[in-house]
Amino acid sequence: MKLIKKIAPFALAAPLVLTGCGGNNDTKKDEGTANKDTAKSGTVKLIYARGKDTTNATKKIVEEFNKKHPNIQVEFREMPSDSGKQHDAYVTALNAQSSEIDVMDLDVVWPAEFAQAGYVLPLDNFIQKDNVDMAKYNKGAVAAASFNGKQWAMPKFIDAGMLYYRKDLVPDGKVPKTWDELIATAKATKGQGGTKFGYLMQAKQYEGLVCNAVEFIAAYGGKVIDENGNVAVNSPEAIKGIKKLVEVAKSDFVPDNNNTFTEIESHTAFLEGQGVMIRNWPYMWSMVQDQAQSKVVDKVGVAPLPAGDKGSAATLGGWMSAINKYSKHKQEAWEFVKFMNGAEGQKISAIEGGLAPTLTDLFNDQDILKKNPFFKEQGFVNALSAAVPRPVTPIYPKVSEIMQINLSKAIAGQMTAEQAAAEMEKQLKDALKK
Ligand code: GLC
C-alpha cells in the first residue's frame, strides 16, 4: 500500500494536463510556425531518433507509417542505448537549435528539463485539434509527460523492473519473494544447467543503476526525495536498501565485471543461457521468446521483483515521443507521433517489442496478450500501477549523476552505505537548494 502512494505526485498532476490543453499563446506561436514550414509540396523527410531498438518494433512502426503516408517518409536515426548518453546527444543538438531531428523519444525522467529548456514543442493544440482522448492513456504516464500544465510528449510505453527466472532451474513454487531469498537462490543455483551467474542486473555507473537502486531503497521503505520534494535518502530505511543493493552487486553470483553491465550486457548473458535470474524491463520478454536470438525460449518465467521489509518495488520507467521545437516539419512530425503512440503504433510496440502500452485498453487486446501473457498477470499489473517514480525535477540529470557516483563508490567498496547516503543527502540538498 505504501508503495502505491509513491505514484501520487504523478496521479495528482494529471488534471493539470487536461486543464492546460489549448489556449496558450506560446503554443499557438510555435504551431503557427509549423504550418508555414510545412506548406510545401512534395515528400517531407522526417528524422525520428531513439535509442538502439534490439527488437523489430521501430522498423515496423516506421514501415507502416511510411506506407500509409506516402507524402511523409520517416527515417530512423539510432541513438546510443544508454539513456544518459542519449540525453546528452539531444541536449547538445537542441542547445544548438539544430532542426535535424524532428521527433525523438524522451525517457520518463526528462520532460521537466526539456520543457523548461524549451527544447520540445507543447502538443496541446495538436491533441485538441485531432481530438486525441488523453483519458484513454495511463494517467501516470500522461502526467509524467506534462509539466507546468502542458503536454510535452505522448506516452509511448511504461516500464517497470521485473524478475525473469529460469523455470528449469527455479521451480515456480520456489521463485524468490524477498531479496534474501533471491540471494540464497542465486547462490544455490549458480552454475546449474550451464549457467555462470545466479543473478544479472544493471550496475554500471549510468541511469540503469539508479533504477536498480530505487527498487532496493523503496523495497526497504526508503525514498530518495519525499512527496514534499525534501531529500530523504539518508534514512535508516534507504540505507538498508543501499546495503542490500551493495550485497547483491558485490556477490560472487553476479559477473565479475558487473559494474560494466547495462540492460544490453545483462540481457545478452541471459539470452545466452548464462544467468539463472535477471532484473530487467518488459522488453526482454520478446527477445527471450525469439528463437533467432535466445537459447532460453520457453524456459523463462516472470515475477515481481523480490521484496524488502516494506514490500516489492519496481522503478517506473518508460519513454514518450516529443517534437523538436526547431523541427521544420512540425505538422508531419505530429502525424508520426500520433500514429506511433496511438493504438496502431502501440500495438506494434507491444507485439514486436514486448513493450507495455500506455493506452490502457490495449491490455485487453488478444493479439498483445498472446505475445505477452504476463501482461494479464496480477503481479505485473500491480508492479506497473505501483511503480516508484524517480525524482521529478528539471535538474534530474544532476540528481541522477549524484546518485550514480555515490552508489558506484559504495558498490566498489570505496565508501559504506551510510557514507554514500550521507554524501547523496549533502549533494542533493545542495543541487536542489533544499
Ligand atoms: C529503460 C526505462 C527508462 C530508464 C532506462 C535506464 O529504458 O524505460 O526509464 O531510464 O531503462 O537504463
TrEMBL record:
InterPro entries named in the record: SBP
SUPFAM superfamilies: Periplasmic binding protein-like II
Molecular functions per Gene Ontology: maltose binding
Tagged with keyword Lipoprotein: no
Pfam families (alphabetical): SBP_bac_1 (PF01547)
GO biological process per UniProt: maltodextrin transmembrane transport; maltose transport
GO annotation, cellular component aspect: ATP-binding cassette (ABC) transporter complex, substrate-binding subunit-containing
Family indicated by similarity: Belongs to the bacterial solute-binding protein 1 family.
Name of the protein in question: Extracellular solute-binding protein
Taxonomic source organism: Ectobacillus ponti
